[in-house]
């Protein structure tokens, strides 16, 4: 099979039903050659155990693409995700540990109670905007807005600039024609923020990153902030939207997202298994010629792990059905040294956002059949473009006068 005839992990057909494509790929074995954009080839891991082995094996696989020939076309949209940058995503060993420590320890300064209050405040404001209308788009009007407001507060980004950042992030992860220019604009905006905080430190994550004992230089700081903001925001926004769709379309809820059979946490766990917001990893590179799970790999070959395809295997851990398995067994947070460092705050934001919405608008129903909803194209994210709903109009109670 030659380039151009490989299975494509992009386009409307793939976005409409990636599960069907993953099933076909698994027939080829644990690894399959695919095209992730026109002219851009990779080896995709679809087997659960093989995926774990890639994610954990730092001796065979590297995250740094620089030692190897660049096989991605210069104008390819997937460069926005795969091109090297001095960040935690593209580093190994001590450099990776240093960058990851900055992110983990800075995020650790965020108290869960404060975070829940921030989500509740953002949710109340957003719901108040559309509650009286009896209809809303839960992607643009809620799922993408709640984490954006929280992340803006964390990093000290003005709301107006945060909206621009969110737009650039959507373009970057969709791997469209403007992905590279969106990435450049994103880095430029964060660079301006870093320069400002060098001069005027504040009580925000941007300043914490800069003041960390690891001593990040400006380029490193921009990249770690970009990775944390972009990855955390996109993952959380998509998780909220995918969970709301799951609850609205699942017959177990019997038309009511509030009085359904599962809690928000349980619904989120099912989504992380069935429809993970980040469907595919960033790049891993083979360090030397080897045979891996019966497949010959060459040094420098680009390997991607499909979290969605690996999770789709029944009973990955044994006899237990995947959907009832432990929430720690799915691969939505990745695994190994490059597992998500923002798992707990992302999960807390998503749970709180879903609970806030479903407790207020408990009779929401889909505005169109779930099977006709459009998804953003691209191999890396599983992201709705719209989620229209109808519900009984509701007027939020205004706050009491100040003297009360």
From TrEMBL:
InterPro entries: Cyt_P450_B, Cyt_P450_sf. Coiled coil: none annotated. It comes from the Bacteria. GO terms for molecular function: heme binding; iron ion binding; monooxygenase activity; oxidoreductase activity, acting on paired donors, with incorporation or reduction of molecular oxygen. Belongs to the cytochrome P450 family. This is Cytochrome P450.
């Amino acid at each position: 099979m030659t380039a151009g005839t490989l299975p494509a992990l992009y386009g409307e057909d793939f976005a409409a039903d990636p599960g069907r494509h993953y099933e076909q790929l698994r027939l080829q074995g644990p690894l399959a050659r695919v095209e992730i954009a026109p002219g851009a080839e990779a080896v995709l891991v679809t087997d659960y155990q093989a995926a774990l082995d890639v994610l954990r094996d730092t001796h065979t696989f590297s995250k740094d693409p620089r030692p190897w020939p660049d096989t991605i076309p210069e104008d390819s949209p997937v460069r926005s995700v795969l091109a090297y940058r001095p960040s935690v995503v593209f580093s190994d060993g001590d450099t990776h540990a240093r960058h990851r420590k900055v992110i983990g320890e800075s995020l650790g300064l965020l108290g869960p109670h404060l975070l829940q209050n921030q989500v509740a405040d953002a949710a109340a404001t957003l719901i108040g905007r559309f509650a009286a209308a009896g209809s809303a788009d839960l992607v643009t009007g809620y799922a993408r807005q709640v984490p954006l407001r929280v992340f803006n507060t964390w990093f000290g980004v003005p709301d107006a600039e945060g909206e621009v950042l969110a737009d650039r992030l959507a373009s970057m992860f969709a791997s469209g024609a403007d992905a590279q220019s969106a990435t450049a604009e994103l880095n430029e905006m964060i660079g301006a923020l870093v320069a400002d905080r060098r001069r005027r430190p504040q009580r925000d994550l941007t300043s914490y990153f800069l003041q960390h004992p690891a001593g990040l230089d400006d380029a490193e700081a921009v990249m770690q902030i970009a990775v944390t903001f972009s990855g955390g925001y996109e993952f959380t926004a998509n998780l909220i939207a995918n969970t709301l769709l799951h609850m609205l379309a699942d017959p177990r809820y019997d038309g009511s997202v509030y009085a359904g059979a599962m809690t928000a946490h349980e619904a989120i766990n099912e989504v992380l298994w069935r429809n993970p917001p980040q469907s595919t990893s960033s790049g891993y590179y083979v360090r030397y010629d080897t045979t891996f799970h019966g497949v010959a790999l060459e040094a420098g070959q680009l390997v991607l792990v499909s979290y969605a395809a690996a999770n789709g295997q029944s009973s990955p851990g044994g006899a237990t059905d995947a959907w009832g398995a432990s929430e720690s067994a799915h691969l939505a947070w990745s695994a190994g040294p490059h597992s998500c460092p923002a798992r707990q705050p992302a999960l807390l934001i998503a749970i709180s956002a879903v609970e806030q919405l479903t407790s207020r608008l408990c009779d929401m129903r889909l505005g169109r059949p779930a099977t006709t909803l459009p998804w953003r194209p691209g191999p890396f994210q599983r992201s709705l473009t719209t989620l229209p709903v109808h519900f009984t109009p509701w007027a939020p109670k205004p706050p009491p006068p100040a003297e009360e």
